[in-house]
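User: Good morning. I'm curious how adenosine-5'-triphosphate would be positioned relative to this chain. Could you predict the structure with it bound?
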Amino acid sequence: PSAMREVMLELPKVRWEDIGGQKEIKKQLIEAIQWPQIYPEAFKRIGILPPKGLLMIGPPGCSKTLMARAVASEAKLNFLAVKGPELFSKWVGESEKAVRSLFAKARANSPAIIFFDEIDGLAVTRGTENDGTSVADRVLSQLLVEMDGLEQRSGVTVIAATNRPDKIDPALLRPGRFDRILDVQPPDLSDREDIFQIHTRKMPCSSDVSLKELASLTAGYTGADIKLACREAAVAALEENLEISQVSMKHFKIGIGRVNPSEVIFYQNLA
Ligand code: ATP
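Assistant: Good morning! Here's the predicted structure, ligand included:
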């Protein structure tokens, strides 16, 4: 038996409407992954093959994971998610085996998406942080072997995500591997309004709540921050009165005040 926890198969239930903004990335995911599933004959006729690997780059909390789950849901694909660092094992050879069985499982359950979050934790540029024979190197080599061996019509698409593109080994980006780059940006003003709308759907809001104003108060907030701010707004309402039945603008202002915008922190740390 493997010392590593087996990667679970999921059939996620995330709709495109659950994601605010990111219109361009949604379009790219639909064309690269959903279309080849729905219209295989069209792809054949026109003489193109679907991409095997896509790399999403962008700061944490900006819906990379959410979008990968959404495309799996919308295209009805099985979903196997793994965080880069999870693939390390202290047992020699065990990590490569984990990569092999992950791909085998995806092929056996195709059409499927393999999602590697924090791929930078795995695909660190070889030779920079180690002597070239570390577990990371061996896992990366195995990943490349699996990507290269993947049939383009196998129905398996690999999506990787990172917020440290500078740490990615360029070997991963060669044609036939992760050759589509999706640049995931933090939400702009109108995206933030959409995200507030999504995360207040199930909240009874008073008529004084302006989503537009909330969006303008949250420059530098990621989608994850906004979700948290909405929750904090509801908590602030309950703190005022446990019998309260509506969340109002003042509660949202309190909620926003309780959450620090991660985008600012993220870019400060990179600098
Ligand atoms: P990480 O790099 O940390 O994995 P991520 O970019 O993958 O971050 P997610 O895990 O997808 O981010 O986002 C965290 C949560 O924040 C999501 O589950 C979702 O609830 C919320 N969220 C983030 N972005 C959006 C968005 N654009 N619309 C709606 N909700 C969002």
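The first strand starts at residue 9 and ends at 10. The beta strands are 9-10, 53-57, 78-83, 112-117, 156-162, 178-183.
Let me know if you'd like a different ligand tried.
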